Amino acid sequence: MNLLFTTLQxxxxxxxxxxxxxxxxxxxxxxxxxxLTIPEPLGVLPLFGHLHLLRGNELVFKKLAAISDKxxxxxxxxxxxxxxxxxxxxxxxxxxFTTNDLVLASRPNIAFGRYEGYNNAVLALAxxxxxxxxxxxxxxxxxxxxxxxxxxxxxxxxxxxAFIKHLYIGSGCTSVxxxxxxxxxxxxxxxxxxxVGKRIGFGKVNSEEWRYKEALKHSEYLAAVFMIGDxxxxxxxxxxxxIAQMKKTFKELDSVITKWLQEHLHTRSRNKKxxxxxxxxxxxxxxxxxxxxxxxxxxxxxxxTILVLTLTGSDxxxxxxxxxxxxxxxxxxxxxxxxxxxxISVGKGRWVEESDIxxxxxxxxxxxxxxxx
Length: 373
Fold this sequence. Notes:
This protein has three domains: 27-104, no CATH class; 132-315, CATH 1.10.630.10; 331-372, no CATH class. The protein is 62% helix and 4% strand. The protein contains 16 helices and four strands. It has helices at residues 2-33, 60-71, 90-99, 111-116, 130-143, 146-151, 153-171, 179-196, 208-224, 228-231, 240-269, 279-286, 298-312, 315-329, 332-345, 361-372; strands at residues 74-79, 82-87, 292-293, 296-297. The strands form two sheets. A two-stranded antiparallel sheet has the order 1-2. It starts with a helix and ends with a helix. The relative contact order is 0.08. Mean pLDDT is 84; it is low at 1-23. One of its GO terms (molecular function) is 4,8,12-trimethyltrideca-1,3,7,11-tetraene synthase activity.
């Protein structure tokens, strides 16, 4: 009886919240209707807005492209309590990210940033402000400078050499070479060596680095999962299962990064000069031990930066490489033209180096077309 009464109370409370939200949204919508000039699709629903238009298995950008074909290059969508403006033509995008960059530079406070981004301490999810500007300056001046890229350049060379050697050995086997998996190993080896001096090799299952890679992949999936609380905060309790997954994945990632950080601090205290320098070393050089930026201490800033760089720089690169190779294999004429350009500009007596790329115009065009597609 008590359980039934409690359930009834909870149901009535939920219904009351929904009704209250509907009334507030109706008032807000009426106020916006007088000033809104951006077109929006028909079929807006109370409380949920246009969320139903984005459901299904089709990729979101394809759905948005279909709406753009009907409404034009700029339109708006109502997603719960928030309004989304979609711009698809170059002029409007330029206005958004150059002329009005400061107005649109911030980021919403979403569940993924809170539960997997060290409470929005990662650069990609931090709101625009003093912390974001300071972190961006560190990344631009120190982490991605020409000097740091040259310092870490040997890692790219050695990992590409190891990749080609592994590919050559695999070519003598009867089994099919899974190039997408090898590209994944290559990019993770490069990014982990640059960040923390670690690598997973080409299939060291159950290693610490492998667990980190698998947790990263699950984290990428969770980053794309729709959270009702991000658009309708009052219904955030419905996301409890997804939030539990985020917390579990973050715990795995944080435990590994924390161990790597402790290893770096221990090695630095012993003043070892012969070890390989990493991005984590650069961050520890730049940030004093007692630094606090907008409530974030040094260790959190370092771990958050390592997390976001490994998260955004791994799978996206391997997928692009796989896409480029698949396109070339499906277009033999284009592949032959690229090979001929390399033979003429570089020759057959040595490998292509990064300094050669500026002379390989056809190869550059292939890369640009791959990104466009």
